Every structure is written in C-alpha cells, then in structure tokens.
Amino acid sequence: MKNIIEDRIKAFIKNHEKSHHLEDIWQEPLFAYASADDPMFLELKDSVSPTHFMPSDFMENPKTVITYFLPFQEYVVESNAYGLYSSVEWGRAYVETNRLIQLINTDIQLLMEENGFKSTIIPATHNFNEDTLISDWSQRHVAVIAGLGKFGLNRMLITQSGCCGRIGSIITDMQLEPTQRPAGEYCLNKHNGTCTLCVKKCVNKSLFEDENSYDRHKCYEMCLENADKLGEVGLADVCGKCLSIVPCSFINPVSRV
Predict the structure, then answer these.
(1) 143 and 149 in contact (C-beta within 8 Å)?
(2) 3-class DSSP state for residue 209?
(3) What tens digit of pLDDT does each residue of 239-257 get?
(4) Could you report the per-residue pLDDT of 70-128, keeping only the tens digit for each?
C-alpha cells in the first residue's frame, strides 16, 4: 500500500503542475511513516508544548502517521540565497506548496475511503499559537519521529534531499510499517562542529551557535516583513535565508563526510 500512496502523490504533483500551469517547483518527494502510538509523540508534550496534539486528537483509533517532504528545485533556493528579503520565487514556492499539501491530503483521504479507511486533512502551516509561535502539530517534529530526517542547527528538518522544501503529514487508521529512524546526525554542526553557516546567514539574528538558543519572535518578525513585501503571491510569511545555499540545502551533508 505504501507504493500505491507514494505513486499517487507523485502523480498528483505532476498533474497539479500541469493543470495549474506552474513552472517546475518541486523535486521528487520523500516519504516516511510512524506508528501512531510511537512513544516519541508523547514526548512532544515536553519538548514542544504541553498542548501538542497526539494522533488520537485528530481521529479515533489512529494507526499510522504518514509524512512527506516536497523539496524545492534548485533555482528556487538559489534565488533566495542573498539579500535581506525573501525572493519572489521562494515566496511563491512556499504559498504554492502549502496549497499543494492541502490538496494532496484531500486526495489521499479519498484513496483511504476507497479502501475502507479514514484519514485526516492537516494544513501545512498557520496552525500555531500567535503568542507563543509554537505549533500544536509540529510538522518538523512529527517528521523526525517518522524518520524523514533530523534537525539542523537552524532548527529545520534536514532530509536526504536537504532542508529546502515543505513537510506534509497525514494520520490514518490504516496500518503501515513504520520507517526506521536514522541513527546519526544530518547536520554538520551536530555531527562534528564544522558548520555554522545557517547562523551567519540569518538576517535578523534569530539563530545562535548554541543549538538550544533561538529567538522565534525575531524570526517571525522577519517572516512578517516578507509577507508584506510578497503580498502579490499570497500569504508568504516566510524567510528561508538560513536554508538557502548552505551545505544542507539539497542533501544530507553528513553522508558526504
């Protein structure tokens, strides 16, 4: 069934690009699966927020959390590498990917229904507390639990296809085998302390070499400035400078060490 789900999502992306006359935005997606009763979900109550949702908050008797990563094409990332504000290409990719994730999840819900199962439709973003700026369903943390990647110093998810892209997730009562989580780090700084480029590239001084320090309010302040600048493409409250043209932009750089 995993192959059917993944092939359906890949085909959906290609059809969406064609029917909406979009330029090539996404590279091949990545997938990973977690058991809905994995004890790491409960740990998010401590590591993220006491109000963080469990899979069972979305549906009765959940079995699997499906996660997927939609990597941006290299030209999108390159366009955002320099300057204070996010590029139009980066902002458009962000908006279009959020829309695409909603459509993918809706389509997979239909697939599940066709096979006698249920699933949820979880938005890709804008499901956070506006005061704390903490999400009650952190796509990145959920993806780590599923084995899709590991956190970088920039607090973003690094996958085998890098960190430049968007994450989607689906909860279903279909039983699917969990993905084995990677043992090692994907961030060069966490692996051997050789890289802090994401910190240097942060335009609003929100990141620090101490991985436990992060000013999420300054980060979001910059995202809101970009939203004002990029209003023509939709709600692009995004930045991405710390992701763009760094060793982990397109790959897991530790695999090359």
Answers:
(1) yes
(2) coil
(3) 999 999 999 999 999 998 8
(4) 999 999 999 999 999 999 999 999 999 999 999 999 999 999 999 999 999 987 766 66
Element counts in the chain: helices (H) and strands (E): 8, 5
Q: CA–CA separation, 179 vs 185, rounded Å?
A: 16
Amino acid in position 210: D
Cα(63)–Cα(35) distance, integer angstroms: 6
User: Among 88, 16, 80, which Cα is nearest to 232's?
Assistant: 88
Contact 29, 71 (CB under 8 A): yes
CB neighbour burial string for 209-223, b if at least 16 within 10 angstroms, e if fewer:
eebeebeeeebbebb
Domain ranges for the chain, please list them. 2-252
In the block, which residue shows the tokens 């094409």? 73
Quote the CA–CA distance of 157 and 149 in Å, as a whole number.
6
Any idea what DSSP says for residue 166?
Answer: E
* Of 236, 96, 255, residue with least CA distance to 162: 255
CA distance 135 to 130: 9
